[in-house]
């Protein structure tokens, strides 16, 4: 199985000399794709069984190869490293298999190509990786949900344009970050389903010339379907693009969680206090408590987006079939998955160890934030919303000119703004009253938030 130059290459017979060192350096991918080895071993074991069904191996030879691959896996797991001539993971596994079983290893490449082999390995790795990512997203959701359950009765300002807008339940704000993560899990599941299509048996581009049972391979390797076109199968990396998009949206949502918490943890807001285990200090300023995990999360969306753009930019210019440009697909995929699997536990821990400064949050709710409630009060008394809006606007301006909160204005000011105001209007300036008006599905009212928490729990089952 060795090539003409004495190395263990899977190609080379038609060349008069070996490749230039510069080509070897750029062409060698094992520094990236070595992590595919468990899947390459499993794939090769399934392929040995398929070759037995196709008559290439006897049952005894297939068993010998499968056992040899178990020993190869044990060697790699124990720390065996590639040598200079192992240009990729497939060559590495094949070389070790030759050392373990000798001659029968030389027939394992029958009917398959590294083109369909790497496509299959990468799909298997992706399915496994997305399963792990899903677990980590769920753990972050659980951390958010636990905090939301504890803060159902607490009130805080909600913001539009980063300006105080209306009062909401703290739980309602927390759950506003739960549901984007639920959508992320749906996207991850969709990307996993896209990956679960078996390309093995497609050969280099035209399909295998041997009657390998692809249904047997599908079931043995945990795929849900079989590719329908060999040309498409070896060049298809849509599943990686879909995975990277799902991870990009996940990174975006982690970034938004982080941005809220970074703001709310600042001295200017003072709404939350970070746990010691998820904070860092300053090398110069002893008083500092820095939310480094959250700041790294805020940067994650850009990193995932960069990986997505790099892959799609590569794919858009490729002709059909396999092209060596696709060697770059795993760099983007591995980087995005590595980044997210490292980041998600730190974000979950940061959320789980937050302490909410409930008094500070409640004090940040001003009477002006109930301006819409005052307008609604008038609408319930048959005043048009346009006129109600104008009347409340005049009250807000008066409070600003006097330098007082809206709740400090005398009742005479309300009557002057609109004759439909009655004494009970002052009750509308309580934030609890504001929340009670919004007990609609998806709103911040107490009953609605309780239902939302129940729905969130159900979504995690």
From TrEMBL:
Subcellular location: Cytoplasm
Argininosuccinate lyase C-terminal domain residues: 369-435
Organism of derivation: Pseudogemmatithrix spongiicola
Annotated Fumarate lyase N-terminal domain residues: 23-306
Top-rank taxon, per record: Bacteria
Keywords: Amino-acid biosynthesis, Arginine biosynthesis, Cytoplasm, Lyase
Enzymatic reactions: 2-(N(omega)-L-arginino)succinate = fumarate + L-arginine
Gene designation: argH
Family classification: Belongs to the lyase 1 family. Argininosuccinate lyase subfamily.
PROSITE patterns assigned to the protein according to its UniProt record, in alphabetical order: FUMARATE_LYASES (PS00163)
Pfam families xrefs: ASL_C2, Lyase_1
Protein name: Argininosuccinate lyase
Pathway: Amino-acid biosynthesis; L-arginine biosynthesis; L-arginine from L-ornithine and carbamoyl phosphate: step 3/3
